[in-house]
TrEMBL record:
This is 5-formyltetrahydrofolate cyclo-ligase. The keyword Mitochondrion does not apply. It comes from Christiangramia antarctica. Belongs to the 5-formyltetrahydrofolate cyclo-ligase family. It is an enzyme of class 6 (ligase).
């Protein structure tokens, strides 16, 4: 399937989910995240969910990170160049929704991309080789290229993988793991 077809299909599948299903599946994903060997790291980047898009509720993972005293970094979009600005989440961080209803920090302590060790990545769908389909603006691909070569990339998906995304580009950064409500997919195993 092509990315445009996948985007359309998986947006429809997400729209069909009830709030109760989203909460249950999000909690299952958070619990399975505990099985990934990432918890000895210090700096974790996580997106804040767009409830209007019926995204995975990342508050469960956020609670785990805060419970483990990890440094949590959240993104703010720079729509002028489709980049992400990485802000340290603190007790004083003010969060507001931008014009696309994405919750993001108003300001705060900026953290360089190279310092981030684990990134939880939003997506619409992924395939069996670890490639993903997002919203199509390239924010995360651009950001991931700026990160260290050792950064661990963890996708979060309500749905199991499709066989293959047909139009993968050189700048598309594959995942190391993807977590669904049923399973952790490890793309580092050959």
């Amino acid at each position: 399937m092509l990315k445009s077809e996948i985007r359309k299909r998986y947006k429809e599948l997400r729209r069909a989910l009830s709030p109760e299903e989203i909460e249950k599946k999000s909690m299952m994903i958070a619990n399975l995240c505990l099985q990934i060997p990432i918890w000895e790291r210090s700096f974790y980047h996580i997106f804040l969910s767009i409830s209007e898009q019926k995204e995975i509720d990342t508050s469960f993972i956020l609670n785990i990170l805060q419970g483990k005293d990890k440094e949590v970094i959240i993104p703010r979009m720079n729509s002028q160049d489709n980049s992400l600005i990485n802000i340290l989440l603190t007790d004083n961080t003010l969060i507001k929704k931008n014009r696309w209803n994405i919750p993001e920090p108003v300001d705060g302590i900026e953290i360089t991309s190279e310092k981030i060790e684990v990134v939880f990545i939003p997506l619409l769908a992924f395939d069996k080789t670890g490639h993903r389909v997002g919203y199509g603006k390239g924010f995360y691909d651009k950001f991931l290229i700026e990160c260290s070569s050792t950064v661990i990339k963890v996708g979060l998906s309500f749905f199991e993988p499709i066989d293959k995304i047909n139009n993968i580009f050189a700048e598309d950064v594959p995942l190391d793991y993807c977590v669904t409500p049923q399973k952790v997919y490890d793309f580092n195993k050959k």
